[in-house]
Records
---
Amino acid sequence: MKQFIYADNAATTKLDKVAFEAMIPWLTEEYGNASQPYSFARNPKKALAKARETIAACINAHPEEIFFTSGGTESDNWAIKGSALLNHDKHATITSAIEHHAVLRACSSIERMGYPVAYVNPDRNGTVSPEAFKDIITDNTNLVSIMLANNEIGSIEPIEELAAIAHSHGALFHTDAVQAVGHIPIDVQKLGVDMLSASAHKFNGPKGIGFLYIKRGVKVGTFTDGGSQERGLRAGTENVAAIVGMATALEQNCKNLDENQKHIESLECKFLDDLSGLDFIRNGSEKHLPGNISLSFRHASGEAILHRLDLNGICISTGSACDSVNTQVSHVIRAIGVPDEYALGTIRISLGKENTEEEIYQIEKALRQLLKRE
Ligand code: PLP
């Protein structure tokens, strides 16, 4: 029996049962190395090709544009460092102030190597406006990396417009879509991006596996040197079971995307209605990820709320999971200018397809009770 309420789906998600079952043969009987020439390697090799096709179909890409990685962090690092180090005519990178640390720290790394990085600020809702972006892009911009949806506040960025502006200056456009893939429709052609990062554990796949979409013809440097896997760009024996699990989970989520989205949105509406009367700010833009609810309570401590909810068996987050040891106001909450008396009282509740109305009611009840005591 379930002992707790999980409402931290932006940190990670439960592994899909169909995906889990699809992984088993590759962990048990079919353990051959996909790069070997003998017949025992034939099935793993076919499984990799099929997974690439499945993933490509889910985001309207071509199979040869999908490169397997160890997850979102690696995909972001590859896109940013691989672009900066390869292109010697143009040197500058642009990103936003509200990116995940996988992007921000990869940008700090290239800055230390002498490649300049400019940071565009979002508006109060966490949206990077095309106007603000136009003000800082130049013809020396080599790469732009702006996330598709923010992990802390859920805002969805106007990627189509931003990518078009980047291209008009001859720059490449990468988007960190880790929070969006498997949750909202993604069409790389329509978005017009050159690279896109995704991570399986955010869409009910296994942990430690992800992919980087690299558009045909786009040149990015090698991420790891070694064997000829991933067309020589990312060497290392493939984790066939995890790759099959990722493709199956994505296929499952994409098949049920509308249904899941409707369910999560109705839980979100109910939850916010139930919270009426409490003194809080809802962060993020109107166009946001379903179920990503960032709330800042006046004169409260997000950390205390997290721990008290934990005592009630409820898992939520203060900022992003990667920052749960950091008690300071997150860079995202700072960048969007949440007033001081609210900023420290920020929590993130992120609902998933498995959550129920009863759970929403339990979270609301526990939250109301503890805020009365604060
Ligand atoms: N990018 C975003 C927006 C994320 O939310 C995360 C994880 O929280 C990552 C990148 C890192 O992904 P991974 O955990 O697969 O390394």
---
Amino acid sequence: ICNRGVPMAILVTGGAGYIGSHTVVELLAAGHEVVIVDNFSNSKPEVLNRIRQISGKDFAFYQVDVLDKDAMRQVFKENDIQAVIHFSGYKAVGESVAEPIKYYHNNVGGAIALVEVMNEFGVKHIVFSSSATVYGLNNPSPLTEDMPTHTANSPYGSTMVMKEQIFRDLAASDPDWSITILRYFNPIGAHASGRIGEDPQGIPNNLMPYITQVAVGKLPALSVFGDDYPTPDGTGVRDYIHVVDLSLGHLKALDRNLTVKGVETYNLGTGEGYSVLDLIKAFEEANGIKVNYKIVDRRPGDVATCYSDASRANQLLGWYAQRNLVDMCRDSWKWQKENPQGYDVISQA
Ligand code: WQD
């Protein structure tokens, strides 16, 4: 679709990140023009080369912080933005407890600054990342979108609850807005090419990147955080979803967002819960590798069980998770094995 002589584009904030980069690959494959905004606070420039390599296509890139409204205005001036997919934000639960103001400023402040600039340019279509963490400690799985989300068990989770509330209030104040809230469950896996994947800075907080770093020899052993939960084998149960399925969910959400007004909320999960020991076993069988682990105390703030009812996304978005736990384990391992230092490009000697 062209007007003002330039093709209409999808603006992807945080497009150099784990989920963002996988979504950009699918947007390009589907024929969208893409503009990425990323400040590399939790990502590296190399991923942009990988996206071009996988997709065989190019895109506009701006190294900009969404909080920098003048820089963001320039992005909207130079491109004809049709809609925004908003990924950028900090997401380390433990860090958010230690540095709550950094999280509120960046995650909530960033979302507000973004929609203020969008409003100035009359761009009122946004799909944004929320998280199953908004369901807090008291909602029973399978989780459905109508459940209360007033509790969150970390400042990171509270930023998600607040962002959702801000977007609901915005839509109530201006019916021209089309807002899609996507609550992710536990994204793992990588693009089948092994050229992009999860590249956490420092010691991984999340289970799968920790497992792959043990498997590749970067870390000695996995600590399993508690085996005394009220679950089948005592370890935590989660709804692991392949990051490519999650990315394709964004394309379905975008298509619907461009045709309806108001706020819609969707769980993006498989609807299946797997325990930590299930995941270790699946990883070992999928890849023929032993993973060293030891059982340690529970991690504060963890819930025993968290998995989705994704039927609303299935029915209204026509989206279904297609990839299974073996696919997730195989693809995570291929990425890690072929990129033991992640995106840290070994400078060509
Ligand atoms: C999964 C399971 C742990 C690490 C968090 C955020 C959520 C989302 C994904 C931010 C749990 C166990 C983990 C380890 C372990 N977004 N585990 N040893 O906590 O479900 O969700 O990350 O990234 O918003 O809340 O994901 O991968 O940290 O934990 O035993 O070294 O693995 O106890 O049962 P979580 P996780």
